[in-house]
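Q: I have 190 residues here and want to know how they pack in 3D. Can you give me a structure?
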Amino acid sequence: MGNRGLLVIISGPAGTGKSSVINELFRRRDKLFFSVSATTRAPRKGEVPGESYHFITREKFDEMLAKDEFLEHATYVSNSYGSPRAPVEEKLAEGYDVIMDIEVQGAKQVKEKMPEAITVFLAPPSFEELERRLRGRSTETEETIVKRLQQAQRELPELRRYDYTVVNDQVDRAAGELLTIIEKAKTERN
């Protein structure tokens, strides 16, 4: 069991910089695998199938769900999303540490199925900074920004349920802290 990988669940509100921190983590470390979610929604401009998401039909999704092939799943605005179990199990067995970027509800589901997973909540330095970052993207409507900020207010109190909290004030520092957490968790487990 000593060489089995570690499952690391990362959650945090939209605009916290999860993708930036995760990309930096992958830049700094080998033997990492990113769990790509499956979705029934159509690809957006610039999304790469198998990299951004596994784009599947509603029928295929329902079939996988019936066979308990997801570690977690949810439905948002009539589209379903889920994290396929098989690639995660496979990579962990090969000794890879698996990174999952999923929201709070999904994190709870995965932790129930795989209690050995460690959970990390990526938090913004402040709510004001989160709002500034969301507005700075200038890719979303005011309505979407307001919805994301309301969602963040619901999610932020959840950080108490996570094993670790990392504040993303600087991507480099946050990725470094995440790396330290992973190494520490692996050492403790072995």
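Q: Anything worth noting?
A: The first helix runs from residue 18 to 28. The two ends are 8 Å apart (CA to CA).
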